[in-house]
UniProtKB/TrEMBL annotation:
Domain N-acetyltransferase: 1-155
Gene3D superfamilies: 3.40.630.30
GO molecular function: acyltransferase activity, transferring groups other than amino-acyl groups
Organism: Vibrio renipiscarius
InterPro entries xrefs: Acyl_CoA_acyltransferase (IPR016181), GNAT_dom (IPR000182), MshD_Acetyltransferase (IPR050276)
Protein name in UniProt: 3-oxoacyl-ACP synthase
UniProt cross-references to SUPFAM superfamilies, sorted A to Z: Acyl-CoA N-acyltransferases (Nat)
Length: 156
């Protein structure tokens, strides 16, 4: 498996994964195009195996371009047939150095990473074990249920 920057030619396959992973959301292709076009504020990466996109991750730079950057893992998704195989973990761990490289091109460093997810999402453990993220707050009834805010501090 290889993790790399998303290319425009990846958008259709990535949109299919988005649609399967986030069933309450709509307009998957348009959502991903908007994020893809927000580069370098949004850094989009895909996991590829045998020339097939099997997952993606969106990292979003928050609150302007700064010397010390707070990034949000805005979205992480793996094709259902590839879930449970460590692809999400690989996406985080293999894209993180690439994120840091892109930030360094702007003379910036990564300070913190935050992520929000449903309170009942087992991905909390993934963010805790890969980044050291801890739950900082619970936001009741935000999207489809309670949402938690997790922060991994001093990820430099």
């Amino acid at each position: 498996m290889r993790v790399r920057l998303m290319a425009q030619s990846d958008l259709n396959e990535t949109a299919e994964i988005h649609q399967l992973a986030f069933v309450r959301q709509k307009q998957s292709y348009e959502w991903l195009v908007c994020n893809f076009n927000a580069f370098p504020r949004v850094l989009c990466f895909v996991a590829e195996e045998n020339n097939k996109i099997i997952g993606y991750i969106l990292w979003t730079q928050k609150s302007g371009f700064r010397p010390e950057v707070v990034m949000e893992i805005e979205q992480l998704a793996v094709a259902p047939i590839h879930q449970g195989k460590g692809i999400g973990r690989c996406l985080i761990l293999n894209s993180l150095p690439l994120v840091k490289e892109k930030l360094a091109e702007n003379d910036s460093v990564l300070k913190h990473v935050f992520v929000t997810t449903r309170a009942d999402n087992h991905a909390q453990e993934l963010y805790r074990s890969t980044l050291g993220a801890e739950v900082e707050a619970t936001i009741t009834n935000l999207y489809s249920a309670d949402e938690i805010l997790m922060i991994a501090r001093d990820v430099s």
